[in-house]
């Protein structure tokens, strides 16, 4: 099928390449010339395992190309919109500038019967508004949220857990579309086209949920709100563990055995960051308030507050470990990305901790297998070292803030001790073997652990 993908950032670039990899003829469109140039050469503009391979394969097969010219969307049967919806500068609400610009840019090229499939994370109610703008062209708007995780984006796109499609319904989501039966038929036809797009997943039996616009939009934000809540829940337990001498990792293992709870996303530490969870829970709170239901998700403010407190805690542990002051101490920060397998530093708790230590007068050296260049652009005042061992040399204290295998599995405490000057290690991700580090002479501090 001929597809266009508007927006070739994280979501869009992966989606375009993944759709080509399952046999579609795809054009990716973005206003950023540099991004298009790099994608056209088969180079991923960000770190994502597996993406360079499917980009190269798609381009070589002739099924995948990239352009800055929106007119090339003409003729595609489905137009995916995957542009960013960042947090507004002066409020918690989502900024819809890019979504609006993408739809406006696309309108002249839409043909009757086309589908416009929104994938961006938007405040509930957005799809209904956009549908009204698309309706005069004879195209149909659907909402098809994306649940991909960075680091696993290719797998999550090619083989998702579930597919969700919000379609026009009889409850008046599309103005001027005629009778109830018309909208139901239009919705069924739209869902059928998306089943064809995602044919390998559909054939495999992946749940394919067809619903209305509002539900589809809410599925996305509520999934992220739930995940953020799960992380802050365990971090709240870590705070209690810290004053009682309990161990939050054992607690998480024990409650995680209950299948109703589950162990995943119960990793206590310096908390969540990235381009999605923090901004999505804030935008959800802002939208709920606009809808007069702020109290329904008031707990998300607490989720956010607990999350941010964990960064303070990590800094406090380093300060305590160094005897009460970090001024002019050499501190090696292992990690900068908001999580492993990513070069993304958006709202990275890891970098935030590093910046705070620097602010306290420490000499901070940061290393990361993928995110140094991005981090350096944002915080040039810090000292960056590509080589892990080089970064560890002469450290008075070490803090692990991103649980890359390079630190978690491949760094032995004995080897670290041979490089560092001091023996203080703060495990901001509870990812090290505390007993092994202690046995090697380190003073080990975990998050929510004795
Ligand atoms: C998230 C959602 O998982 C994904 O479904 C959605 O589409 C986009 O947002 P992502 O931002 O890639 O994906 O990262 P995720 O793996 O969810 O991790 C988010 C943050 O939570 C990271 O900073 C991670 O370190 C942290 N985290 C995760 C914890 O602190 N503890 C955990 O147990 C799990």
TrEMBL record:
Residues annotated as domain UDP-glucose/GDP-mannose dehydrogenase C-terminal: 332-434
InterPro entries xref list: 6-PGluconate_DH-like_C_sf, NAD(P)-bd_dom_sf, UDP-Glc/GDP-Man, UDP-Glc/GDP-Man_DH_C, UDP-Glc/GDP-Man_DH_C_sf, UDP-Glc/GDP-Man_DH_dimer, UDP-Glc/GDP-Man_DH_N, UDPglc_DH_bac
Keyword annotations of the record: NAD, Oxidoreductase
A Pfam family hit: UDPG_MGDP_dh_C
Keyword NAD: yes
The UniProt record lists the keyword Oxidoreductase: yes
Listed EC numbers: 1.1.1.22
Annotated metabolic or biological route of this protein: Nucleotide-sugar biosynthesis; UDP-alpha-D-glucuronate biosynthesis; UDP-alpha-D-glucuronate from UDP-alpha-D-glucose: step 1/1
Catalytic activity annotation: UDP-alpha-D-glucose + 2 NAD(+) + H2O = UDP-alpha-D-glucuronate + 2 NADH + 3 H(+)
Family under the similarity heading: Belongs to the UDP-glucose/GDP-mannose dehydrogenase family.
NCBIfam families xrefs: NDP-sugDHase
Annotated protein name in UniProt: UDP-glucose 6-dehydrogenase
Source organism (scientific name): Microbacterium terricola
């Amino acid at each position: 099928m001929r597809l266009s993908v508007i927006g070739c950032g994280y979501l869009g670039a992966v989606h375009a390449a993944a759709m080509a990899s399952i046999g579609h003829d795809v054009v990716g469109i973005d206003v950023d010339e540099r991004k298009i140039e790099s994608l056209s050469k088969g180079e991923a503009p960000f770190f994502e395992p597996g993406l360079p391979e499917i980009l190269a394969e798609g381009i070589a097969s002739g099924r995948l190309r990239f352009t800055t010219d929106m007119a090339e969307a003409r003729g595609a049967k489905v137009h995916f919109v995957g542009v960013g919806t960042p947090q507004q500068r002066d409020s918690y609400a989502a900024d819809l500038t890019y979504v609006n610009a993408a739809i406006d840019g696309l309108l002249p090229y839409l043909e009757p019967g086309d589908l416009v499939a929104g994938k961006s994370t938007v405040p509930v109610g957005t799809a209904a508004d956009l549908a009204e703008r698309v309706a005069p062209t004879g195209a149909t708007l659907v909402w098809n949220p994306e649940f991909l995780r960075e680091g696993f984006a290719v797998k999550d796109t090619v083989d998702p857990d579930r597919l969700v499609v919000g379609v026009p319904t009889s409850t008046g989501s599309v103005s001027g579309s005629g009778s109830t039966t018309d909208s139901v038929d239009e919705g069924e036809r739209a869902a059928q086209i998306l089943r064809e797009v995602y044919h390998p997943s559909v054939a495999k039996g992946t749940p394919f949920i067809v619903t209305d616009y509002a539900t589809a939009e809410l599925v996305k934000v509520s999934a992220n709100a739930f995940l953020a809540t799960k992380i802050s829940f365990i971090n709240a337990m870590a705070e209690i563990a810290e004053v009682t001498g309990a161990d939050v990792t054992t607690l998480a293992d024990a409650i995680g055995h209950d299948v109703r709870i589950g162990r995943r996303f119960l990793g206590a530490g310096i908390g969540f960051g990235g381009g999605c969870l923090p901004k999505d829970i804030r935008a959800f709170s802002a939208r709920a308030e606009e809808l007069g239901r702020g109290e329904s998700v008031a707990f998300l403010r607490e989720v956010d507050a607990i999350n941010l407190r964990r960064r303070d805690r990590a800094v406090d542990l380093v300060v305590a470990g160094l005897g009460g002051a970090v001024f002019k101490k050499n501190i090696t920060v292992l990690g900068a990305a908001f999580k492993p397998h990513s070069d993304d530093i958006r709202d990275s708790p890891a970098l935030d901790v590093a910046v705070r230590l620097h602010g306290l007068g420490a000499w901070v050296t940061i290393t990361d297998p993928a995110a140094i260049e991005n981090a350096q652009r944002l915080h040039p005042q810090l000292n960056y070292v590509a080589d892990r061992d080089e970064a560890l040399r002469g450290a008075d204290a070490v803090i692990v803030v991103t649980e890359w295998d390079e630190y978690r599995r491949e760094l032995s405490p004995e080897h670290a001790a041979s490089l560092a000057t001091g023996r203080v290690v703060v495990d901001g991700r509870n990812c090290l073997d505390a007993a092994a580090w202690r046995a090697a002479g380190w003073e080990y501090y975990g998050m929510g652990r004795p």
